[in-house]
Automatic annotation (TrEMBL):
Pfam families: Pantoate_transf (PF02548)
Gene Ontology annotations for the cellular component aspect, listed alphabetically: cytoplasm
Any GO BP: pantothenate biosynthetic process
Name of this protein: 3-methyl-2-oxobutanoate hydroxymethyltransferase
Length: 293
């Protein structure tokens, strides 16, 4: 594997933030792609979460999460589909608008769903324009490296910031036959590097690396001047993203190895629902405090 010169050394601290760090900064205006570029220059790491509704988005915005992705993971996590494949432009547009309404500071990135950009750059521009105009997102995301570079180029030259997504691209689940780790072996690693470079050269402002060996993700991160956003791609990416329902322990059943649960929300919510139900059945709710006379 080619060794490329590092843009920064592991452990380098961000330069003085002057209140402008993406996470923990004091500026209250909405974050833009220029702030993202400045964070890469400072060597500053940042978090990204998915969000699919205004209320949850407002919680993450108040917590200072600088970038919220209205991911097509809404298919599995919010809409009850088996994968991201069935998600439509109407669904992404509706939920992206809700996330924009629920936030004041976060950069909201709307995902382009399967079938909304694969035909070519013109279709991609039509879909991305809809997300920007109708939902008010500040950027869009699409999957693919070299294969999507022409789409990225036209969107960026039309004034729409693009986050790319390489490695495991869940919209290709039927071609992959599941969700396998990508970039293993010399040939696959070189292809991943070419994919990441292709979207950077096409003008993407950041690139998601999903399910990629940590060593390869570190090499990609060193070789790009745009930030890498890791999900199952190790510690050396510039940013980290998790699907919020996974991170909060809301997802039913098995979650991928790369997920860390910061809360057992499914358990807590279920317990609250049972406590309510038991009080209703026992005739204890509503009490006087919850009653009008
Ligand atoms: O749709 C999504 O949530 C994503 C993230 C996993 C990066 O693409």
């Amino acid at each position: 594997m080619t060794q490329l010169s590092p843009a920064r050394k592991p452990g380098d601290r961000p330069a003085s933030d002057n209140g402008k760090t993406l996470y923990g900064g004091t500026s209250s205006r909405r974050i833009t792609v220029r702030d993202i570029a400045a964070a890469k220059e400072r060597g500053e790491k940042w978090p990204m979460l998915t969000a699919y509704d205004a209320m949850t988005a407002s919680v993450f915005d108040e917590a200072g999460i600088p970038v919220l992705l209205v991911g097509d993971s809404m298919g599995n996590c919010h809409l009850g589909y088996e994968s991201t494949v069935p998600v439509t432009m109407d669904e992404i547009t509706l939920l992206s608008a809700a996330v924009v309404r629920g936030t004041t500071r976060a950069l909201v990135v709307g995902d382009l769903p399967f079938g909304s950009y694969q035909e070519g750059p013109v279709q991609a521009l039509r879909s991305a324009t809809r997300l920007v105009k109708e939902a008010g997102v500040g950027a869009v995301k699409l999957e693919g490296g070299e294969r999507s570079a022409h789409q990225v180029e036209l969107l960026v030259s039309s004034g729409i910031p693009v986050m790319a997504h390489v490695g495991l691209t869940p919209q290709s689940v039927n071609a992959f036959g599941g969700y396998p780790v990508q970039g293993r072996g010399e040939e696959a690693a070189q292809q991943l590097l070419r994919d990441a470079k292709a979207v950077q050269d096409a003008g993407a402002f950041a690139v998601v690396l999903e399910a990629v060996p940590a060593e390869l993700a570190a090499e990609v991160t060193r070789s790009l001047h745009i930030p890498t956003v890791g999900i199952g791609a190790g510690l050396d990416c510039d940013a980290q993203v998790l699907v919020w329902t996974d991170m909060a322990g809301m997802t039913a059943g098995r979650v991928p190895k790369f997920v860390k649960k910061y809360l057992e929300m499914r358990q807590l919510l279920g317990d609250a629902a049972k406590a309510f139900a038991e009080e209703v059945v026992a005739g204890d709710f509503p009490a006087t405090a919850h009653t009008f006379h």
